[in-house]
Specification:
Layout (H helix, E strand, L loop, with lengths): L1 E5 L3 H13 L3 E6 L2 H11 L3 E5 L9 H12 L5 E5 L4 H8 L6 E5 L6 H12 L3 E3 L1 H9 L11 H11 L4 H8 L3 H14 L8 H13 L2
Parallel strand pairs: 1-2, 1-3, 3-4, 4-5, 5-6
Helix pairs in contact: 2-3, 7-9, 8-9
């Protein structure tokens, strides 16, 4: 894959370059500040962009803004956002308007190489990858809605769905049968008034779209 990296921390940036190169990917450009990001993305049109949320000069949301601007110019540009903390507003904005090919991971997740590379490849192929802590924040900060009607097991299934896991992975993770997973997913969609789908990716998008409402 051809990758553009936007990260102001030089050590992490070079670490990402080394990690991705060692995994067989091509880093076509790196950016160390917000103003550099959009031109790099538009010039190279990578298979996936790995972006920090907060970058110079303001250290606010420069990376995210560049990602959103790039996706307007390059529809469906896969973007994997890295952040030091769970920032709900940024996550919601990134996921708004359709969540195809997007990911939001905490930077600590980069140290788990296999998980990070798996998330990167999932996003690049048009899937979704959300850090479990991000999912938890999105779920727990919402009150007085149908999410409150989910059972603990259904909530666990929803977490894994929002991370982009398929039925087999969910079953293995929760140590239950595939049939039980299908039943829980059906209950989740029914309680959230979302139509079930045979597409694993589409069902993730439906859940994320619901989480992003309001």
């Amino acid at each position: 894959m051809r990758v553009v990296i936007a990260e102001d921390n030089a050590l992490l940036r070079e670490g990402l370059v080394l990690l991705l190169s060692s995994a067989g990917h091509e880093v076509v450009a790196v950016a160390g500040s917000g103003p550099e990001v959009l031109p790099a993305l538009l010039e190279h049109r990578p298979d996936v962009a790995v972006l920090d949320v907060r970058m110079p000069p303001g250290f606010r949301d420069e990376g995210l803004r560049a990602a959103l601007a790039a996706r307007k110019e390059i529809p469906d540009l896969p973007v994997l956002v890295l952040s030091q903390y769970v920032e709900e507003t940024y996550a919601a904005e990134l996921l708004g308007g359709g969540a195809s090919g997007v990911g939001y991971l905490l930077k600590d997740r980069v140290g788990r190489v296999d998980e990070f590379l798996d998330a990167l490849e999932r996003v690049a192929s048009g899937g979704t990858a959300l850090d479990p802590e991000v999912v938890t924040e999105l779920l727990t900060r919402r009150r007085d809605d149908p999410l409150d009607t989910l059972t603990p097991r259904e909530r666990e299934v929803l977490h894994l769905m929002a991370e982009g896991r398929d039925n087999a992975t969910i079953a293995k993770t929760l140590v239950v049968s595939d049939r039980a997973v299908s039943k829980h997913i059906g209950n989740v969609f029914a309680k959230l008034s979302l139509p079930p789908s045979d597409s694993g990716h589409r069902r993730v998008l439906a859940v994320l779209a619901y989480l992003n409402k309001g």
